[in-house]
Design brief:
The relative contact order is 0.10. The chain is 44% helix and 14% strand. About 2% of the residues have low confidence. It has 18 helices and 15 strands. Strands 1-6-5-2-3-4 form a 6-stranded mixed beta sheet, sandwiched between helices. By secondary structure, it is α/β, with parallel strands linked by helices. The structure holds one RNA strand.
RNA sequence: GGACAGGUGGCCGAGUGGUUAAAGGCAGCAGACUGUAAAUCUGCCCGCGCAAGCGUACGCUAGUUCGAAUCUAGCCCUGUCCA
């Protein structure tokens, strides 16, 4: 990599955030001269972002750490349109109220990663609905339309993907890139924003914004993308069997969040420590070089640090304590899911369903038949096995990793 | 509006009248081996039921048939080309 002068680019570079830059030298110069307001856009399609967005969130954090101003752009307006990037299917449209609620919920997570306020390097959160919803159609066509050619829009991956797969791309979605470009230009005027960051799939959209700002206002702005993050075995970040790994506490308990990181692939440890924690690089290097079973120590550090950032210190400590009691001690931890045994008792199958380890009785039965169900560490092979209400706390397990507590009602 | 091609389980994708709850692959779950890792091997993978079995399911609806994912009609949706 090149030698960057600015703290910002050095920081981003050495921690592995940089995939592409529109003008490395220009941005480097800008960032070493003063405060650069930079933004990343986020969807408001769900009440929580998930781990897949964590790189972008961390990048805003780095921006602030390097003395610049992070702008969180919530796509309240663009969510009404739907980004076709990476989707092979159109999204369902959300109501305005749902979008507003989502934004409020998502904001709580950003408040953990960024310092908000009115100061020059304090983070701000803006919603593009503010300006997008006020746009008149004819006005938009006249001001922005001339700067886009269909020829070029057709070459974008997000468009080509749909066309190649002979899947529908609606005009609504086709307009997404125009709106996103408009956002950049708008933020450059409102907030003096000079930089847009995003995942590598956003490159095209970002470049559009840069051009639009230049053509309409003569402003020079910059773009930076992160590499597409996958786990070592090629899966997208943040997806597990149980669903997405949500950042909001109410969407995913801290213990499960912690476990996600604790269970990461050996090969990912170093990369993740650099991207998702504030640990100094020499410490990261030390942890990542651990071999064999020792690397588990590094995974615990990773889990602790990420959980701490995202969920707070208490949540991280509780999750670690629970994990250590559950796995190392064979005991029980506070954070495990709990299910109350009714007075008349219940079967192992009902208990597995009740605590959420199986989604149907059939699945629970198969789990028992396959030898994956345990009570206090003892495999139960009889699916009609009954659990008494009189008993004290019982540890119930599905497989080696999912554990819970059965407690008399 | 017209011609043609399509719509199958989370995804991809076989299947053109019964033996099809639907091949195969991916993803997922469990077991073995390990280190709460990876790789590998084995089993499972619509719901209810201890079970025999029952109920749902191949875009929707109505038919033909003893019997349909498979045939017919209408409708809806998608793509390609034409207007």
């Amino acid at each position: 990599m090149t030698q960057y002068q600015s703290t910002l680019l050095r920081l981003l570079d050495e921690r592995g955030y940089i995939h592409q830059l529109t003008d490395a030298a220009g941005l480097d110069k800008l960032a070493s001269e003063g405060v650069v307001p930079g933004y990343i856009g986020f969807d408001a399609t769900a009440p929580s972002l998930h781990v897949g967005s964590l790189v972008q969130i961390m990048m805003l954090r780095r921006l602030q750490q390097a003395g610049h101003k992070p702008i969180v752009l919530m796509g309240g307006g663009t969510t009404k349109v739907g980004d076709p990037s990476g989707k092979d299917e159109s999204r369902k449209l959300l109501t305005e109220q749902a979008i507003r609620d989502n934004i409020a919920s998502i904001r709580t997570v950003f408040e953990r990663f960024l310092t908000f306020g009115d100061g020059p390097t304090d983070a701000v959160l803006v919603d593009n609905d503010e300006w997008l919803s006020k746009l008149g159609y004819i006005e938009l066509l006249r001001t922005v339309g001339p700067h886009f050619t269909i020829n070029r829009m057709m070459t974008f991956d997000s468009v080509k993907l749909r066309l190649d797969r002979e899947q529908p791309l609606t005009f609504l979605e086709f307009n997404y890139m125009i709106l996103q470009a408009y956002d950049f230009r708008e933020l450059s005027m409102r907030q003096g924003c000079r930089l847009q960051m995003g995942g590598s799939d956003q490159w095209g959209n970002i470049v559009n914004g840069i051009e639009l700002a230049r053509r309409m206002n003569g402003t020079e702005v910059f773009g930076l993308t992160t590499p597409l993050l996958t786990t070592a075995d090629g899966a997208k970040m943040g997806k597990t069997a149980a669903g997405a790994v949500w950042l909001n506490e109410d969407a995913l308990p801290a213990y499960d969040f912690w476990q996600y990181w604790r269970n990461c692939d050996d090969r990912d440890v170093g990369r993740f420590l650099k991207l998702f924690t504030d640990l100094p690089l020499d410490e990261v290097a030390r942890l990542a070089s651990l071999e064999g079973a020792e690397i588990n120590a590094a995974k615990i550090v990773l889990a602790n640090e990420v959980t701490r950032l995202c969920r707070g210190d208490d949540a991280a400590k509780a999750a670690e304590a629970t994990a250590s009691a559950t796995f190392a001690g064979g005991g029980l931890g506070e954070d495990l899911p709990v299910y109350a045994i009714p007075a008349e008792g219940l079967t192992i199958v009902d208990a597995l369903v009740g605590i959420g380890f199986a989604t149907s009785r059939g699945e629970a039965r198969r789990l028992v038949a396959g030898g994956g169900a345990r009570l206090d560490g003892v495999a139960i092979n009889d699916e009609s096995h009954r659990i008494d209400a009189q008993a004290t706390e019982i540890r119930i397990s599905a497989g080696k990793k999912r554990h819970g507590i059965l407690r008399p009602a």
